[in-house]
Write a structure and sequence with these properties.
It contains five helices and no strands. With about 140 residues, the protein is mainly α.
Length: about 140
């Protein structure tokens, strides 16, 4: 496992996502101050390479330099603020999510085992007798 490559790929995905969020913020701002430009940016973003933040910025700079710089500024601001909290939030979120998945899986398999045991009367009576023996001990 190449952790350095995983980190590079993760950083690229995060940068693209922050570009997307920056576009959403700028479109929202423009919809209040300059609705026609907001519509143009929204249309450009649906046709462009918004999944690849760097390619999107390159294309936008060719079409509208001012908007390109504005989105880069918002993206940089978001990156600064988000990355401050990100490591702890990601680790905590993954730990909680994994715990919830394990809990749900355990519930599923114990319900399955319980329904199989209750559908087999011989197993159920043996289990019941074993449980009664455990109680008397």
């Amino acid at each position: 496992m190449d952790l350095k490559q995983v980190a590079k790929d993760t950083a690229k995905v995060l940068a693209s996502y922050l570009t997307y969020q920056s576009v959403r913020i700028v479109v929202a701002q423009l919809s209040e101050t300059n609705p026609p430009l907001a519509i143009w940016l929204n249309d450009f973003s649906t046709k462009g390479k918004i999944q690849d933040g760097e390619a999107y910025i390159r294309e936008l700079l060719l079409e509208n330099q001012e908007l390109g710089f504005r989105i880069m500024t918002v993206r940089e601001y978001l990156a600064h603020d988000v990355t401050e909290f990100l490591p702890e939030m990601v680790c905590t979120g993954i730990q909680q999510s994994n715990m919830e998945h394990r809990r749900q899986h355990l519930e599923r398999i114990t319900q399955l085992n319980w329904s199989v045991a209750s559908s087999n009367p011989e197993t159920s009576s043996i289990d019941s007798e074993a449980n009664l023996d455990n109680l008397s001990s």
